[in-house]
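Appendix C: a fully annotated inverse folding record. The material below is reproduced so that readers can follow the format used throughout the book. The structure is listed first as tokens, followed by the designed sequence.
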């Protein structure tokens, strides 16, 4: 103390705290001055893949504590951050369309359209090479044309359901997409949390994420929003039937009946074109994750597969089934192998014109009168094919084939 001119047992110097410091004590031998430094305005920022949490105030009794957790499990493939399947419309198992009418129906793989009143015509369009690699590098975009709507109850939307409602629940997420409209359309974006069709009580919850103005030029748009927590929702556990989902919906037209969900966009008989749809954790968009084609195909085939007989070079009697045998004089039991295994046990659909099918055995070819599904696993489905005559020999090998020049198919769907 002598150095600063103090004498005795008490220091008379004045010690003042500076920025982000604190001073305690009286300057006596038993209660000396203590200078403490403290952090001010300490914040942490999440990354697209990591959630950071900061608690405490930096004191001795409540020090700062920083924890980190993955923002979202990799549910769409190793290292994948985009939850949307086929967001750039690269896969079109059913073809490019146009797919006319109101639906409800899937058109391009994983994408669903529905509405009431008028028509929703959907098609997949290839971007021209002279566009400099397409729209932001995309090879394809989807075009929706709304027409004939006018009444209060009319509406039109396009959506995709993604597995696992817990994904992103209680977290900030960002939806980004490229869009164009020659008619300048307003689009209402909605996020739906679905607890599963077997869950008791209320099982669907809707978030109005915002309205986007789409202009007659290709532009990227994005919306950030907090996806609600599942706390307190439903009246019990999830149904456990693999139907719980999180969904992205683009409302394209709506009368007053659905104005709340559509966010008052109004009736719009217009055209909407979009691609590169991405839903990811975080408050801002990142570059579109363009997945390898083999990965897109495998992901799409978990939901929809189609066995097609359309090769003109193979002529008629082109085989559809994997194997089979004659189970009765008028029934062939045929198998279809499914690869990769599907999301759940699939249902089937087929050409309404049964004359396009036939059963072939070593003894001859037999016209078909009915097709029914009798057994289904995720990787195999068995059909009973009934013929118009009862002359087949039991136990003989049998196959379901194309009967004439018209291409035909058997489709398997495990869509949500």
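Designed amino acids, in order:
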């Amino acid at each position: 103390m002598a150095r600063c001119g103090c004498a005795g047992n008490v220091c008379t110097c004045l010690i003042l705290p500076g920025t982000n410091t604190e001073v305690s004590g009286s300057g006596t031998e038993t209660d000396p001055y203590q200078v403490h430094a403290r952090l001010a305005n300490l914040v942490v920022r999440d990354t697209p893949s990591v959630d950071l949490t900061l608690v405490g105030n930096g004191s001795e009794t409540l020090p700062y504590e920083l924890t980190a957790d993955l923002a979202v499990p990799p549910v769409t493939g190793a290292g994948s951050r985009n939850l949307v399947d086929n967001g750039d419309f690269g896969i079109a198992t059913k073809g490019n369309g146009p797919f006319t009418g109101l639906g409800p129906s899937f058109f391009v793989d994983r994408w669903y359209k529905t509405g009431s009143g008028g028509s929703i015509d959907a098609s997949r369009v290839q971007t021209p090479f002279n566009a400099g690699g397409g729209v932001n590098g995309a090879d394809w975009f989807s075009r929706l044309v709304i027409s004939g709507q006018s009444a209060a109850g009319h509406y039109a939307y396009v959506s995709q359901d993604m597995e696992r409602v817990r994904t992103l629940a209680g977290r900030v997420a960002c939806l980004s997409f490229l869009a164009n409209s020659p008619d300048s359309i307003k689009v209402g974006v909605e996020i739906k949390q679905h607890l599963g069709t077997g869950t008791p009580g209320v099982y669907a919850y809707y978030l109005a994420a915002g309205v986007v103005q789409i202009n007659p030029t290709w532009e990227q748009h994005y919306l950030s929003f907090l996806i609600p927590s599942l706390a307190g929702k439903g009246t019990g556990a999830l149904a456990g039937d693999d139907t719980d989902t999180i969904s992205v919906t683009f409302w394209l037209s709506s009368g007053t009946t659905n104005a709340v969900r559509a966010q008052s966009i109004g009736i719009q008989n217009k055209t909407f074109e979009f691609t590169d749809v991405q839903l990811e954790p975080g408050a801002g968009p990142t570059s579109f994750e363009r997945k390898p084609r083999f990965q897109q195909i495998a992901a799409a085939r978990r939901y929809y597969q189609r066995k097609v007989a359309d090769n003109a070079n193979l002529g008629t009697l082109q085989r559809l089934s994997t194997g089979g045998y004659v189970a009765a004089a008028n029934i062939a039991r045929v198998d279809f192998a499914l690869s990769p295994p599907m999301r759940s046990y699939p249902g089937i659909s087929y050409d309404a014109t049964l004359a396009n099918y036939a059963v072939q055995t070593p003894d001859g070819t037999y016209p078909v009168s009915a097709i029914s599904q009798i057994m289904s696993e995720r990787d195999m489905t068995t059909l009973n094919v009934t013929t118009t005559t009862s002359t087949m020999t039991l136990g003989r090998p049998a196959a379901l084939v194309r009967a004439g020049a018209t291409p035909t198919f058997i489709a398997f769907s495990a869509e949500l």
